[in-house]
User: Fold this.
Amino acid sequence: KQWYQRRVAITAGGPTGTYLQKSSTTFTPNDWHNANSIISTTAVRQQGGSLEIRQAARKLRNDTQSITNWEQHDNTTRLFDRMQDIVAWKDKLEQTIADTDEEIAQLTSHKERCETALTNMNTPFEVAQDNLATRTIRVAVDLVDDEVQQELIKEVEVINGIKEKLKQKVNEAFQQLCALQDGYNAMCEDLADKMHCLDIDQQCHGLTNQSANIGFHKNATRIANGTVMPDSWDSHSNYNTQRAISEIRSSTGLREAINNMIEQTSNDLEAQRLRTEYAFRKRIHEIQMAKEEVEWQQRNTKREIDVLMDDLRGLKQAISDKDKPLEVAETRSENRTYRPRVELCRDDPHDGLVKERNELQNTVRNLIDQHNIAEDALSQLRKTLNRLDEDWAIKMNSLELDERCMTKRQKLLLVTHKV
Assistant:
């Protein structure tokens, strides 16, 4: 009995280890056939349902596997495309950074040229100021506001104008360098982020189902703080590169302006130097001509003084020479007054002696008057000679001062602000 019950349980598909209990109810054959039919029908129906489930499960498994594989492949492709975009921006950033770095170096060089040119302006300025100070030592009538003075004043104005222009360009170059450096730093930061992002995406791109470093992560698909849209990401790098390119263009224009300004100011300074030195040479020639005229007048005046002094000595001698004839005439007249009685006659000798005495006295007076006139002329000549000597000293002083200025200006030939 026990063996029968265990076999029935196994046949019924219920090997549960329990024993079937004997029923106290008696069924009819129809009940038995119906029960068998129900069991068979139920089994067939459940087998059909199981087949459908198995087919649906297999289809779902295949479909989900295909979807999973496709999604993984699609995202791998997206990661690759994303890496290509990053690499493209990386290359553009690297090129723009290199261009910016080169432009910074060139603009720095031009700024240094401006600073050197500004420093070199000290020598022309000092020379011009020294020339003006030196020419204030001129005296008397030679202290004149001549063409040289006007050109020196203009030279100082030109130099001051050049210095202001150079200072302005140095300041502009400094501001432009700051702008270039800001753009350079922004691109370097952007490039560093791109490199870090590229490293992460390369790691993600290399992950497979067989990778060792994969696992479940809590809330892995969350939107992290600071997340931006692709348009914003692209605009950020585009802004950085376009900003740098714009600053490079501005810097290039500034470098050209610096070159042109240095060239122009150099020409202006050289032209003014030539004008000033031409005025110096012209003025020196005028002073030399005036000095030579004074020297010629000095020689003539000295010669005239010598001749006049000889004449004065002649006049003195002539006056002295008239004393004896006058003494003779007066002695004769005096002696003839002692003639006796009727012999005291106004005869021809008397009249002749009177006439001789009068003529001698008139001659002496004329000689004395001429001597006085000659002495006055000699005094005037000596005064004129003194004035000529003074004027000659003034001309020599002016000539030496201007020649000293010209010697000082030789330093300008060694100075140039083209570097």
